[in-house]
Fold these 3 entries.
Entry 1:
Amino acid sequence: MIESRMIYILIVFGLFVISFMPYISAQEHDSEVEIISSSDLRFKQMGESFDDMIFRIRSVFTFDNQAKVELLNDRSLDLKSRQSSWIETKNQVLTQLRSGELVEDDREDLIEEITESHNEIIKKHVELVQQLNDIKIEAQAEGETSLSENADSKLSEINNLGLALGLSEDEKNSLASELESEVTVNEPITEDDALDIAQDNLNFNAENVQRTNLDGRDVFIVTGSESETSGDTTIDRNYEVTIDVATGLILSANLVTPSETESGSIIESNEEDDTDINIDIGTNVEVGSQASIDGEGSVSESSGVSIGGNVLLNSDVQDNIQQLIDSANNMKINIIVTKENGNVVIDKNIEGELTSEQENLLVNIEEELRTIVNESSRNDARITIEINHKRSESIPEEEEDDEIVINTNIGNY
């Protein structure tokens, strides 16, 4: 009897130990720190390259644009999963870098691979937005309302995924701030460096650069554009890239692609003024005109309009900007409208004196911009507008029979 009881106790005890072995094994496994090498990261990138190739093949052989919109939407979700995986990997790499146990070459290799993957996600996000925008604009031009609305809806969803931030947790916790103490930088980058970084990584014509402070960090905001004409439709793609001054890392990139046909341009033809102005407008437009009277005296005007950000303007804002330019003498106006923590903030700077009519137009523009930014689905909605109008004249008294000759030059800058 005693032996049977002892055997029973031993069996129960054995089963109890066996039941806990998986837990013990898991605990031991978790306690082991997984070491990630640069080779591991490159292998991960190779697998993603294969997925990218499959996507490109599917995209080429998807001829129906409604189906292509869905394909691009699926692509965005795949990129979001890829981003989440890389953020987890990045955090593991940061733990290794901060352990102080890596030699300098290994540190540099790991940082290089993480930075490359960060840039690739941003680049693929921009490419994705570009393709959807192209479909949307062409659908609008062809009157395909359902396709245009579907593409626009998917664009809003994709822009809220955070892919434009690469491997940054959010705008205030950027990869640059995480790597700053780990990256060896001899000196901050220059404006020329910022232009090169943007152009080399995102393959567009980087034209302008401005230094500012964003969430406590000094950054360069690089802008540029490219145009493509398909039939009667002109697509103007306008890029904006934010680059960290201290590290040279890209913080984010956005693509805004307004499509303006002749009837949608900010500046339209005006037959009454004998001035043939009829252009497509993207982000930057400059219009200059000069009138001479029998070779004596002259009137010259130049108007520069620069529009940036990540939200498209409507026709009401464009009309008011046009009226403001038409009524102006010398003035320079900068307006920045941003959404911060759900609130709309407007910063503006005015050089030159405005008439009461111009002041009213400016108030209307500000309120329309406030509404557009407030109603945008983007949490980081932002619009920047710069208007620079110059007028000079030297005109003697005119006679009734004087012949007026007007030459108009139009160019993008």
Note: The CA atoms of residues 264 and 273 lie 20 Å apart.
Entry 2:
Amino acid sequence: MTAYFILTAIIIIQYYIISVIIKKRANLVFLIIVCIELSLIAGLRSVSVGRDSVIYYNLYYYVLNLGGFSFIKTHMEIGFLTYVKLLTSLFNSHLSLFLITAFVIVASNMRIIYKYSKMPLLSVLIYISAVSIGYYVLSLSFLRIAIALVFIFFAFDCILKRKPLKFTLLIFAAMLFHKSAFFFLILYPLSKIKLKVYHMFIITAISVIVAFSAEYIVGILPFGLNTYSFYLSYDPMSLLHLSYFTLVLKIFLVFIVFAFVFSLTRRYLQSNIFLNTLCWAMFLALMVEIISLRIIFINRIIYFAAFNILAIPAAIECVTNRNKKIMLIFSVLLILLVNNIQFFLNRADREHVLYYESYFANPTETPNWIKEGY
């Protein structure tokens, strides 16, 4: 936890130093430096860091040594397997998988922050925040989901430019890396509808019904998503209090953001496609959190919540009153702090990110804390 907060402090200090030294393109320089730093931290991690890292480590060397993946019985998508096969044809170390993937993932986040966020420092702080609000920590483990998110970020551009065909193609490309990207298709039609309070009540009610109909819903999921139905047998009781705590934090975060957005931008929310789409994404992320209380694997659908890096700064930018803006920023930072503390105290060891270990400290040894097949 100490290392995490040191990293956060370094990023904040860097931002203000760069802002003073470089007047033009300071945000670009800042994001490039952060991209390099976060990519190296993620790419040069030991396989002991991240719950699924060892699975990808083993997969890489199976493919490398046996020359293919057709012999592996796996639920992994063909796009990711082909990607691993390509890397093994060029490199003989799993570092290539971790480093290249880390750079692609982090760079995609920095690109969308640079393109759309007027508060890049806050966006970066949200990105590196603990799981459920920010998703840098998650990318240390769930490589397939994080790569799928790269395509989804480009698909977001298509929503704003109203290019439905290109949007659909990008979503199907994302599904080649993780099938759950299918759910992001819903955001395109929703972006055309002005989000209103009664929409929230209706969707919340549907989410509760879905959560309590878990065993029936999973069996009819499309495109092979029911392969994750084994998560229904997982007993969440040991983490339930943490899930509820996280949910409360996210409800409060959504409430304060929406309170400002709806009070200040109701008249032009429909014409502002960018803001309206982000509001939908943030609200859908909250619904995913509710459903995941009963259907554990649904929390893998992080594609809506990933846009917190844009939605929260965009909401703050809507505030013209300086005192209200400062109050909102302070509230968001406080929620991030509380979320990070509870994660590192209660969940980080479970996700195997509590004690960061570099590749150089453990270059070849497969960790013993997990023994899984494919």
Note: The two ends are 31 Å apart (CA to CA).
Entry 3:
Amino acid sequence: MKAFVYSRWDGSREEFRLDAERALDALSDLLMQGLDAREALEWMRQNGFELGGLDMRVMGVDELVQELLEQAQELYDRYRMDRALDDLRQRLEGILDREQQALRSRHGYESSRMNEFLARRHADEAGIAETLERFRDHEFADEEAGAEYEELLEELDAIRELERFLGERGERFRGQEAADYDTAQDVREQIEALEEMARNLAEGNFDSLSPDALAELLGSDAARSLVMLRDLESTLRDSGYLRPGADGPQITPRAIRRIGAQALADVYGALRKDRAGEHDVDVRGAALPLPDQTRPYVFGDSLDLDVTRTVLNAVKRGGSDGFPVRLEVEDFELREMDHASHSTTVLLLDMSWSMSWAGRFAAAKRVALAMDHLVRTRFPRDRFFVVGFSTRAREIGIQELPEVTWDMGEPFTNLQEGLMVAERLIAQHPSKSPQIIVITDGQPTAYFLGKELHVEWPMGFGGVSPHAVAETMKTVRRVTQRGITINTFMLDDAPELLGFVEHMTLVNRGRAFYTDPGQLGSYVMVDYLNGRRQKRS
């Protein structure tokens, strides 16, 4: 049997409070897998979750229930209960023997008092509790026997509960340690407390559970987990990350911003900071100062001084007697400028059923969230859109992106319509360097002829869908003529997909990459940022 060292919990320990940001990070991991907020919360409650940065795991309901039931099973395996009531039964028989002797001495063996007593004593076979109940109104002739009977009568409810318990579960006790009456009562209470707590946990009745009681049964980690499971949804709601919706809790714009920031950190955190924000374009747009970035003046630079840092340099150079401040050329500090032109980027996200395999969709969605956050925070003049495509294509708003999932039961890939939607978005938001980023794991198998949708299975194993490929390539050529670059990231190396992407890349002169889900984020981010590096004169 497990042994624990316990300390009393007063319900106010700081370490028992759930950190909302870390809880949201755990929630976002499940959103990446395609669950919505309600499903993710339920999964976290049932299965537990990690709190990043704290080296701590919150135990889920399933694990807590299992621990409780294992504790109960250890008691079943430790004790045997076949003799648990023997001492109590002998004690009761001794009381009745003395009373019978007293009645015979006082009233004789054939008296009505004796006959009534014997009728009660030798009635149909009964348990100890029922026998005690029969003599509740009996006036004992032996005062000492009567006093002992009253002591037993005070235990009547507990005796009745133990007899019921052993009648239902006695055969489950198969241990080597024989339990007496007191031990049996303690074991019954422990098992019933364990099972009641397990039942309340399984039913989600967290408010009816005592963390202190759980700590006594399973330890402080279990109590801490209970508090955090209980407070999970309310903590996220109070922190502004969740709000009520018609179909359950929904994530808020504030949560989306943090999820995007975390996604960006996950897929781009290893890249150098000094590379972020640079453009690789031939035409310069408006120049904007980059916050907190300066450099020393070099002859020939335009004199766009950072006054504060320039004066500070002069003060440092002049020392304590440097007043009034005298500026020299070597003191000049220039503000770094971003001469970038804005761009429009559309990410085409394959949402066909096959994207649910091997973590592909989670990786692709994480990239979409990361890029959206990058553009919103670092390139606010850029335009970024996400278009999902399976049998049909549609634009996906940032508010729905964290909870979007693959299209269950949609095995077809309509890249043609995805390109059409992207083309319309770029036309509505023109720029000098428009691009389409395609993340997919399959060749086209759906297409439009006019307004009529067609689907087409590949012709044989390893074959292609010739009409879908042909119609998609027509759209690729039209997009290319409009100066739109298509960069493709393949999550599968099937020959038919490689062949199609090679053909598309040859026509469009974009780039193509084959990568696994674990590397997808870095590939896309580096490609996007390298494509925007500034060319300085």
Note: The radius of gyration is 38 Å.
